[in-house]
Amino acid sequence: MPTTRRPCTCPGSSRPTLDELLGRTASPAPLEVDASVVAGKRVLVTGAGGSIGGELARQVAGLGPAELLLLDRDETALQQTQVAVSGHGLLDTRDVVLVDIRDADAVRQVFAARRPEVVFHAAALKHLPMLEQYPLEGWKTNVLGTLNVLRAAEETDVERFVNISTDKAADPISVLGTTKRLAERLTADTAARTARRYVSVRFGNVFGSRGSLLPLLESLIAAGRPVTVTHPDATRYFMSIPEACRLVLQAAAVGSPGEVLVLDMGEPVRILDVVERVVARSGRPVEIVFTGLRPGEKLHEVLSSADEASEARVHPQISHCTVPPLAADDLSTDLLVRPVTSAQLAAA
User: How many beta carbons lie within 10 A of that of residue 221, not counting itself?
Assistant: First the structure.
């Protein structure tokens, strides 16, 4: 594929703030979190070793839960979160749970033994290009893994459940977006059956999370390598990890059963503008390479689908919309329609 290259050499300075990187005059006003959602409750966070799950666990810990369970399949990542939350990484205490959400029996056993009352489901595969290559892996984790957690939650009478989704689930054209939308629909179906506060939350790009734009840029620049940008006009919605986690906690309080909640993240930001600001701060001569949009990528993301009526009902920064429920019995890989072909599934 032909590429367009452009040099960028700029004076360096200290690491920019998020507002400086995004060109915002100020971050959105912090959401006020209703601590009663988790205070005195047994709370479980899946994907607790990830950037969102780990920060979410840290915030929950400060709100006085009766018990906080950190669940992940990555033992090293679990240890890092345990250090952040508890001040040690002994890994011999009951707050760390080593389980893969793909293992339905193991998930069910954990829920039956520990009886969580509130669940934040952050475990997922999230890298769009990788899932285009390995669609069944996205299906196993993002769809079947979510179903395993939902079933265990329903069986043990979990009161509140927040499924962490992505803006790519709105009008999805990728494996990532399609699998996450299916997870939203499974969550909505469980909510319809139980009448419990089982909701989903859609994020834009989370700045500073593992594998996201900022750490990738910093690594490439530090290694003296060219920085790649898919398209000079591509835009994305961005938010910080703390902003994202406050939204999750607020969603647990204000979401009605089956809803999808979306944070007002302001105007979308051109990726090239962010890249050029990071490069400018580095003070190094950095080459920017345009590679073209990859399969499944959009030039511009949207926060809600064309057929979703979205409105702010409780908080001016949070919009509520609904997705059609999907029963587990109706699940089929046929639902993974774009861009996966039957040949890709057979080969995966």
Answer: 19
